[in-house]
Design goal:
This protein has 436 residues and is mostly helical. It has 17 helices and three strands. It has a three-stranded antiparallel β-sheet with strand order 1-2-3, covered by helices on one side.
Length: 436
Protein backbone atom coordinates (compact mmCIF):
# COMPACT_ATOMS: atom_id res chain seq x y z
CA UNK A 1 0.00 0.00 0.00
CA UNK A 2 1.68 3.25 -1.06
CA UNK A 3 2.54 5.66 1.69
CA UNK A 4 0.63 8.95 1.40
CA UNK A 5 2.83 11.95 0.71
CA UNK A 6 3.55 14.14 3.71
CA UNK A 7 1.29 17.19 4.11
CA UNK A 8 2.91 20.42 2.97
CA UNK A 9 2.58 23.39 5.28
CA UNK A 10 0.39 26.00 3.65
CA UNK A 11 1.63 29.37 4.79
CA UNK A 12 -1.57 31.03 3.62
CA UNK A 13 -3.85 28.73 5.64
CA UNK A 14 -5.15 30.00 8.92
CA UNK A 15 -4.01 28.10 12.01
CA UNK A 16 -6.62 25.99 13.70
CA UNK A 17 -8.32 27.69 16.63
CA UNK A 18 -10.17 26.09 19.52
CA UNK A 19 -13.93 26.29 19.52
CA UNK A 20 -15.08 29.75 20.43
CA UNK A 21 -18.49 30.55 21.84
CA UNK A 22 -20.12 33.44 20.09
CA UNK A 23 -23.06 34.86 22.03
CA UNK A 24 -25.28 37.65 20.89
CA UNK A 25 -23.21 40.74 21.28
CA UNK A 26 -20.13 38.62 22.04
CA UNK A 27 -17.48 39.20 19.42
CA UNK A 28 -15.81 36.31 17.77
CA UNK A 29 -12.18 35.47 18.46
CA UNK A 30 -11.06 37.74 15.65
CA UNK A 31 -12.83 40.75 17.16
CA UNK A 32 -12.46 39.98 20.85
CA UNK A 33 -8.70 39.82 20.56
CA UNK A 34 -7.24 42.60 18.40
CA UNK A 35 -4.91 41.70 15.61
CA UNK A 36 -2.13 43.63 17.33
CA UNK A 37 -2.18 41.02 20.11
CA UNK A 38 -2.13 38.03 17.77
CA UNK A 39 1.17 36.26 17.23
CA UNK A 40 2.79 37.34 14.00
CA UNK A 41 4.09 34.23 12.24
CA UNK A 42 4.09 35.62 8.76
CA UNK A 43 0.45 35.00 7.98
CA UNK A 44 -0.02 37.67 5.39
CA UNK A 45 2.27 40.15 7.24
CA UNK A 46 5.92 40.40 7.93
CA UNK A 47 7.10 39.95 11.51
CA UNK A 48 8.36 43.12 13.07
CA UNK A 49 12.10 43.22 13.74
CA UNK A 50 12.97 42.39 17.32
CA UNK A 51 14.52 45.77 18.07
CA UNK A 52 11.54 47.70 16.73
CA UNK A 53 9.13 45.49 18.68
CA UNK A 54 11.05 46.10 21.89
CA UNK A 55 11.01 49.84 21.27
CA UNK A 56 7.25 49.79 20.71
CA UNK A 57 6.71 47.80 23.91
CA UNK A 58 8.88 50.24 25.86
CA UNK A 59 7.00 53.21 24.38
CA UNK A 60 3.65 51.66 25.25
CA UNK A 61 4.76 50.96 28.81
CA UNK A 62 5.90 54.56 29.22
CA UNK A 63 2.61 55.89 27.86
CA UNK A 64 0.69 53.58 30.19
CA UNK A 65 2.70 54.73 33.20
CA UNK A 66 2.18 58.37 32.21
CA UNK A 67 -1.56 57.83 31.76
CA UNK A 68 -1.66 56.34 35.27
CA UNK A 69 0.63 58.90 36.91
CA UNK A 70 -1.15 62.06 35.74
CA UNK A 71 -4.60 61.23 37.22
CA UNK A 72 -2.97 60.04 40.45
CA UNK A 73 -0.97 63.26 40.65
CA UNK A 74 -4.10 65.33 40.04
CA UNK A 75 -5.88 63.31 42.72
CA UNK A 76 -3.06 63.93 45.21
CA UNK A 77 -2.98 67.68 44.48
CA UNK A 78 -6.76 68.03 44.86
CA UNK A 79 -6.80 65.95 48.04
CA UNK A 80 -3.94 68.01 49.48
CA UNK A 81 -5.83 71.23 48.76
CA UNK A 82 -8.97 69.82 50.41
CA UNK A 83 -7.14 68.71 53.57
CA UNK A 84 -5.19 71.96 53.77
CA UNK A 85 -8.44 73.94 53.82
CA UNK A 86 -10.31 71.55 56.12
CA UNK A 87 -7.97 69.40 58.30
CA UNK A 88 -11.00 67.88 60.03
CA UNK A 89 -11.37 65.59 57.01
CA UNK A 90 -8.32 63.69 58.22
CA UNK A 91 -10.67 62.12 60.76
CA UNK A 92 -12.78 59.30 59.36
CA UNK A 93 -16.01 60.43 61.05
CA UNK A 94 -15.77 63.73 59.11
CA UNK A 95 -14.36 62.37 55.84
CA UNK A 96 -16.90 59.56 55.41
CA UNK A 97 -20.16 61.56 55.14
CA UNK A 98 -18.69 64.63 53.44
CA UNK A 99 -16.14 63.20 51.01
CA UNK A 100 -15.79 59.42 50.83
CA UNK A 101 -19.42 58.30 50.79
CA UNK A 102 -20.52 60.65 47.96
CA UNK A 103 -17.56 59.53 45.85
CA UNK A 104 -18.29 55.85 46.48
CA UNK A 105 -21.97 56.43 45.72
CA UNK A 106 -21.05 58.02 42.39
CA UNK A 107 -18.70 55.15 41.52
CA UNK A 108 -21.36 52.55 42.42
CA UNK A 109 -23.98 54.29 40.23
CA UNK A 110 -21.48 54.46 37.37
CA UNK A 111 -20.51 50.81 37.88
CA UNK A 112 -24.14 49.66 37.79
CA UNK A 113 -24.76 51.70 34.65
CA UNK A 114 -21.62 50.28 33.02
CA UNK A 115 -22.63 46.71 33.92
CA UNK A 116 -26.11 47.22 32.49
CA UNK A 117 -24.70 48.69 29.29
CA UNK A 118 -22.23 45.84 28.88
CA UNK A 119 -24.92 43.26 29.60
CA UNK A 120 -27.18 44.78 26.94
CA UNK A 121 -24.41 44.21 24.40
CA UNK A 122 -23.24 40.80 25.64
CA UNK A 123 -26.70 39.24 25.85
CA UNK A 124 -27.71 40.61 22.45
CA UNK A 125 -30.41 42.98 23.70
CA UNK A 126 -29.22 45.91 21.59
CA UNK A 127 -31.42 44.98 18.57
CA UNK A 128 -34.43 44.54 20.89
CA UNK A 129 -33.99 47.97 22.48
CA UNK A 130 -33.25 49.49 19.09
CA UNK A 131 -36.48 47.99 17.77
CA UNK A 132 -38.43 49.78 20.51
CA UNK A 133 -37.00 53.12 19.41
CA UNK A 134 -36.83 52.31 15.71
CA UNK A 135 -39.75 54.54 14.63
CA UNK A 136 -37.87 57.50 16.12
CA UNK A 137 -34.34 56.57 15.08
CA UNK A 138 -35.34 55.44 11.59
CA UNK A 139 -37.02 58.79 10.94
CA UNK A 140 -33.89 60.51 12.26
CA UNK A 141 -31.61 58.14 10.29
CA UNK A 142 -29.73 57.04 13.38
CA UNK A 143 -28.01 53.64 13.77
CA UNK A 144 -29.29 50.85 16.00
CA UNK A 145 -26.78 51.62 18.75
CA UNK A 146 -28.25 55.10 19.06
CA UNK A 147 -31.73 53.58 19.27
CA UNK A 148 -30.67 51.19 22.03
CA UNK A 149 -29.09 54.04 24.00
CA UNK A 150 -32.21 56.18 23.45
CA UNK A 151 -34.48 53.46 24.84
CA UNK A 152 -32.12 52.84 27.77
CA UNK A 153 -31.98 56.56 28.62
CA UNK A 154 -35.60 56.37 29.84
CA UNK A 155 -34.35 54.04 32.61
CA UNK A 156 -30.73 55.00 33.31
CA UNK A 157 -28.60 57.86 32.00
CA UNK A 158 -25.38 56.14 33.08
CA UNK A 159 -26.26 52.92 31.24
CA UNK A 160 -27.23 54.91 28.15
CA UNK A 161 -23.95 56.83 28.16
CA UNK A 162 -22.01 53.59 28.62
CA UNK A 163 -23.76 52.09 25.58
CA UNK A 164 -22.85 55.13 23.48
CA UNK A 165 -19.21 55.05 24.53
CA UNK A 166 -18.90 51.29 23.97
CA UNK A 167 -20.37 51.65 20.46
CA UNK A 168 -18.07 54.59 19.72
CA UNK A 169 -15.00 52.70 20.96
CA UNK A 170 -15.97 49.72 18.79
CA UNK A 171 -16.25 51.97 15.73
CA UNK A 172 -20.00 51.56 15.28
CA UNK A 173 -20.72 55.21 16.09
CA UNK A 174 -18.79 58.13 14.68
CA UNK A 175 -17.91 61.13 16.85
CA UNK A 176 -20.73 63.13 15.25
CA UNK A 177 -23.25 60.34 15.84
CA UNK A 178 -22.10 60.06 19.44
CA UNK A 179 -22.60 63.77 20.12
CA UNK A 180 -26.01 63.88 18.45
CA UNK A 181 -27.16 60.71 20.20
CA UNK A 182 -26.09 62.17 23.54
CA UNK A 183 -28.01 65.38 22.86
CA UNK A 184 -31.02 63.31 21.78
CA UNK A 185 -30.94 61.33 25.02
CA UNK A 186 -30.57 64.49 27.14
CA UNK A 187 -33.92 65.74 25.88
CA UNK A 188 -37.19 63.92 26.46
CA UNK A 189 -35.72 60.72 28.00
CA UNK A 190 -33.91 62.58 30.80
CA UNK A 191 -36.93 64.78 31.48
CA UNK A 192 -39.27 61.79 31.81
CA UNK A 193 -36.68 59.91 33.90
CA UNK A 194 -36.66 62.68 36.54
CA UNK A 195 -40.31 63.70 36.17
CA UNK A 196 -41.74 61.59 39.04
CA UNK A 197 -39.32 63.03 41.60
CA UNK A 198 -39.66 66.59 40.31
CA UNK A 199 -43.45 66.40 40.10
CA UNK A 200 -43.91 65.37 43.72
CA UNK A 201 -41.66 68.24 44.83
CA UNK A 202 -43.08 70.99 42.61
CA UNK A 203 -46.74 69.99 42.34
CA UNK A 204 -47.81 70.00 46.01
CA UNK A 205 -45.93 73.23 46.80
CA UNK A 206 -46.39 75.43 43.74
CA UNK A 207 -49.65 73.88 42.53
CA UNK A 208 -50.76 75.45 39.21
CA UNK A 209 -47.49 77.38 38.89
CA UNK A 210 -45.60 74.12 39.34
CA UNK A 211 -47.64 72.44 36.59
CA UNK A 212 -46.86 75.36 34.25
CA UNK A 213 -43.17 75.08 35.17
CA UNK A 214 -43.09 71.35 34.46
CA UNK A 215 -44.99 71.84 31.20
CA UNK A 216 -42.49 74.44 29.99
CA UNK A 217 -39.60 72.08 30.82
CA UNK A 218 -41.35 69.20 29.06
CA UNK A 219 -42.02 71.22 25.92
CA UNK A 220 -38.39 72.40 25.92
CA UNK A 221 -37.18 68.78 26.26
CA UNK A 222 -39.46 67.69 23.39
CA UNK A 223 -38.18 70.61 21.31
CA UNK A 224 -34.57 69.52 21.88
CA UNK A 225 -35.38 65.96 20.85
CA UNK A 226 -37.18 67.08 17.68
CA UNK A 227 -34.39 69.50 16.72
CA UNK A 228 -31.75 66.78 17.06
CA UNK A 229 -33.82 64.38 14.96
CA UNK A 230 -34.24 67.04 12.28
CA UNK A 231 -30.49 67.60 12.31
CA UNK A 232 -29.69 63.91 11.97
CA UNK A 233 -32.30 63.53 9.23
CA UNK A 234 -30.47 66.17 7.22
CA UNK A 235 -27.35 64.02 7.18
CA UNK A 236 -25.37 63.71 3.97
CA UNK A 237 -26.32 61.05 1.41
CA UNK A 238 -23.45 58.76 2.40
CA UNK A 239 -24.21 58.96 6.10
CA UNK A 240 -27.92 58.53 5.47
CA UNK A 241 -27.39 55.41 3.38
CA UNK A 242 -25.08 53.89 5.96
CA UNK A 243 -27.46 54.69 8.81
CA UNK A 244 -30.42 53.27 6.89
CA UNK A 245 -28.49 50.06 6.32
CA UNK A 246 -27.69 49.87 10.01
CA UNK A 247 -31.31 50.42 10.97
CA UNK A 248 -32.60 47.68 8.68
CA UNK A 249 -33.26 44.08 9.49
CA UNK A 250 -29.75 42.92 8.62
CA UNK A 251 -27.18 43.44 11.35
CA UNK A 252 -24.56 46.06 10.67
CA UNK A 253 -20.88 45.08 10.52
CA UNK A 254 -19.49 44.33 13.93
CA UNK A 255 -22.86 43.46 15.44
CA UNK A 256 -23.82 39.91 16.20
CA UNK A 257 -27.04 38.29 15.18
CA UNK A 258 -29.74 38.59 17.76
CA UNK A 259 -30.97 35.35 19.28
CA UNK A 260 -28.28 33.14 17.74
CA UNK A 261 -25.43 31.70 19.75
CA UNK A 262 -22.92 29.70 17.81
CA UNK A 263 -19.90 27.60 18.53
CA UNK A 264 -17.50 27.91 15.62
CA UNK A 265 -15.50 24.85 14.83
CA UNK A 266 -11.79 24.75 14.01
CA UNK A 267 -12.48 25.84 10.47
CA UNK A 268 -14.09 29.24 9.95
CA UNK A 269 -15.98 28.01 6.87
CA UNK A 270 -18.11 25.52 8.80
CA UNK A 271 -21.72 26.45 9.54
CA UNK A 272 -22.51 27.75 13.01
CA UNK A 273 -23.77 25.25 15.58
CA UNK A 274 -26.30 26.62 18.10
CA UNK A 275 -24.91 26.60 21.61
CA UNK A 276 -26.80 25.59 24.72
CA UNK A 277 -28.39 28.25 26.96
CA UNK A 278 -25.85 27.46 29.68
CA UNK A 279 -22.94 28.10 27.31
CA UNK A 280 -24.62 31.30 26.08
CA UNK A 281 -24.95 32.53 29.64
CA UNK A 282 -21.36 31.64 30.57
CA UNK A 283 -19.97 33.33 27.49
CA UNK A 284 -21.98 36.51 28.00
CA UNK A 285 -21.16 36.72 31.70
CA UNK A 286 -17.47 36.13 30.99
CA UNK A 287 -17.45 38.90 28.39
CA UNK A 288 -19.25 41.32 30.72
CA UNK A 289 -16.77 40.53 33.49
CA UNK A 290 -13.77 40.99 31.23
CA UNK A 291 -14.96 44.32 29.82
CA UNK A 292 -16.18 45.55 33.21
CA UNK A 293 -12.79 44.96 34.84
CA UNK A 294 -11.08 46.75 31.98
CA UNK A 295 -13.40 49.76 32.02
CA UNK A 296 -14.21 50.30 35.71
CA UNK A 297 -10.58 50.91 36.65
CA UNK A 298 -10.21 53.58 33.98
CA UNK A 299 -13.51 55.16 34.95
CA UNK A 300 -12.48 55.37 38.61
CA UNK A 301 -9.06 56.69 37.61
CA UNK A 302 -10.59 59.72 35.92
CA UNK A 303 -13.69 60.14 38.09
CA UNK A 304 -11.92 60.35 41.46
CA UNK A 305 -9.55 63.24 40.66
CA UNK A 306 -12.32 65.14 38.87
CA UNK A 307 -14.63 64.71 41.85
CA UNK A 308 -11.92 65.82 44.28
CA UNK A 309 -11.14 68.84 42.09
CA UNK A 310 -14.84 69.81 42.08
CA UNK A 311 -14.93 69.37 45.86
CA UNK A 312 -11.86 71.60 46.27
CA UNK A 313 -13.39 74.29 44.05
CA UNK A 314 -16.58 74.11 46.08
CA UNK A 315 -14.55 74.50 49.27
CA UNK A 316 -12.84 77.56 47.83
CA UNK A 317 -16.21 79.13 47.07
CA UNK A 318 -15.82 79.13 43.30
CA UNK A 319 -19.29 77.72 42.62
CA UNK A 320 -20.86 80.04 45.20
CA UNK A 321 -19.29 83.01 43.41
CA UNK A 322 -20.55 81.79 40.03
CA UNK A 323 -24.05 81.31 41.42
CA UNK A 324 -24.04 84.76 43.01
CA UNK A 325 -22.94 86.36 39.76
CA UNK A 326 -25.53 84.45 37.73
CA UNK A 327 -28.31 85.10 40.23
CA UNK A 328 -27.41 88.80 40.45
CA UNK A 329 -27.44 89.11 36.68
CA UNK A 330 -30.81 87.38 36.39
CA UNK A 331 -32.52 89.27 39.18
CA UNK A 332 -31.08 92.64 38.24
CA UNK A 333 -31.45 92.24 34.50
CA UNK A 334 -33.96 90.16 32.56
CA UNK A 335 -36.09 88.82 35.40
CA UNK A 336 -36.87 92.02 37.29
CA UNK A 337 -38.15 93.72 34.18
CA UNK A 338 -41.12 91.34 34.27
CA UNK A 339 -41.36 90.34 37.93
CA UNK A 340 -41.69 92.08 41.28
CA UNK A 341 -38.52 92.37 43.32
CA UNK A 342 -39.77 89.62 45.66
CA UNK A 343 -39.20 87.09 42.87
CA UNK A 344 -35.46 87.59 43.31
CA UNK A 345 -35.72 85.39 46.39
CA UNK A 346 -36.88 82.45 44.29
CA UNK A 347 -33.95 82.82 41.92
CA UNK A 348 -31.42 83.26 44.72
CA UNK A 349 -32.72 80.28 46.72
CA UNK A 350 -32.78 78.10 43.60
CA UNK A 351 -29.20 79.04 42.78
CA UNK A 352 -27.69 79.14 46.26
CA UNK A 353 -29.35 76.01 47.67
CA UNK A 354 -31.12 72.93 46.37
CA UNK A 355 -33.96 73.12 43.86
CA UNK A 356 -36.53 72.36 46.57
CA UNK A 357 -35.51 75.54 48.44
CA UNK A 358 -36.42 77.67 45.43
CA UNK A 359 -39.75 75.86 45.11
CA UNK A 360 -40.49 76.45 48.80
CA UNK A 361 -39.67 80.16 48.43
CA UNK A 362 -41.93 80.39 45.37
CA UNK A 363 -44.77 78.66 47.24
CA UNK A 364 -44.41 81.08 50.17
CA UNK A 365 -44.58 84.12 47.88
CA UNK A 366 -47.52 82.62 46.02
CA UNK A 367 -49.44 81.99 49.25
CA UNK A 368 -48.66 85.51 50.48
CA UNK A 369 -50.02 87.04 47.28
CA UNK A 370 -46.67 88.65 46.36
CA UNK A 371 -46.58 86.73 43.07
CA UNK A 372 -49.35 85.44 40.87
CA UNK A 373 -49.30 82.01 39.22
CA UNK A 374 -47.57 83.08 36.00
CA UNK A 375 -44.94 85.14 37.85
CA UNK A 376 -44.21 82.21 40.14
CA UNK A 377 -43.73 79.87 37.18
CA UNK A 378 -41.41 82.38 35.50
CA UNK A 379 -39.38 82.79 38.69
CA UNK A 380 -38.95 79.00 38.91
CA UNK A 381 -37.78 78.88 35.29
CA UNK A 382 -35.25 81.65 35.93
CA UNK A 383 -33.93 79.79 38.95
CA UNK A 384 -33.52 76.64 36.84
CA UNK A 385 -31.71 78.51 34.06
CA UNK A 386 -29.29 80.02 36.59
CA UNK A 387 -28.67 77.02 38.83
CA UNK A 388 -28.85 73.91 36.64
CA UNK A 389 -25.70 74.42 34.49
CA UNK A 390 -23.52 75.11 37.53
CA UNK A 391 -25.04 72.19 39.42
CA UNK A 392 -24.52 69.91 36.42
CA UNK A 393 -20.88 70.95 36.12
CA UNK A 394 -20.27 70.14 39.75
CA UNK A 395 -22.20 66.86 40.02
CA UNK A 396 -22.12 65.34 36.51
CA UNK A 397 -18.65 66.22 35.26
CA UNK A 398 -16.87 63.57 37.39
CA UNK A 399 -19.07 60.75 36.03
CA UNK A 400 -18.81 62.07 32.47
CA UNK A 401 -15.01 62.10 32.57
CA UNK A 402 -15.11 58.48 33.72
CA UNK A 403 -17.62 57.14 31.21
CA UNK A 404 -16.27 59.20 28.30
CA UNK A 405 -12.80 60.67 27.98
CA UNK A 406 -12.17 63.80 30.12
CA UNK A 407 -12.22 66.13 27.11
CA UNK A 408 -15.21 64.48 25.44
CA UNK A 409 -17.16 64.34 28.71
CA UNK A 410 -16.64 68.07 29.31
CA UNK A 411 -17.61 68.97 25.74
CA UNK A 412 -20.79 66.85 25.84
CA UNK A 413 -21.83 68.27 29.20
CA UNK A 414 -21.29 71.88 28.17
CA UNK A 415 -23.10 71.39 24.85
CA UNK A 416 -26.10 69.74 26.48
CA UNK A 417 -26.42 72.44 29.14
CA UNK A 418 -26.21 75.25 26.60
CA UNK A 419 -28.81 73.46 24.48
CA UNK A 420 -31.07 73.01 27.50
CA UNK A 421 -30.82 76.63 28.64
CA UNK A 422 -31.44 77.96 25.12
CA UNK A 423 -34.48 75.74 24.52
CA UNK A 424 -36.01 76.47 27.93
CA UNK A 425 -35.48 80.22 27.49
CA UNK A 426 -37.05 80.15 24.03
CA UNK A 427 -40.11 78.16 25.12
CA UNK A 428 -40.59 80.36 28.20
CA UNK A 429 -40.30 83.57 26.15
CA UNK A 430 -42.94 82.33 23.69
CA UNK A 431 -45.27 81.35 26.54
CA UNK A 432 -44.82 84.65 28.37
CA UNK A 433 -45.39 86.77 25.25
CA UNK A 434 -48.43 84.69 24.31
CA UNK A 435 -50.06 85.07 27.72
CA UNK A 436 -49.17 88.70 28.47
Amino acid sequence: MPTPPPRQHDASAQPQQPAVLNAPGVPSSSSAFPAAHAPAHGHGTHAMPGGQARQDRTRNRRASRMGLALPLLACAVALGAILARDPRLLAWHAAWPGLVRPLLHMLVIMGVGLAVGLAVEAFGWTPLLARLARPVTRWGRLPDDSGAAFATAFLSAAASNSLLMEAHAAGRLSARELRLSYLLNSGLPVFLLHLPTTFFVVGPLARAAGIIYLTLNGVAALLRTVLVLLLTRRAGPADAKRDTDRSGDAPHPGASRSGVVSAHGPHGGQPDVPATPARRLRAAVALVGMRFRRRIGRMALFTAPTYLAMYALHQAGVFDTLRDLAAGGATGGFGMGFLPVQAAGVVVFSAAAEFSSGVAAAAALLDAGSLDTAQTALALVLGTIVATPIRALRHQLPSHTGIFTPRLGLVLLVQSQLFRVASLAAVTAVWWLATH
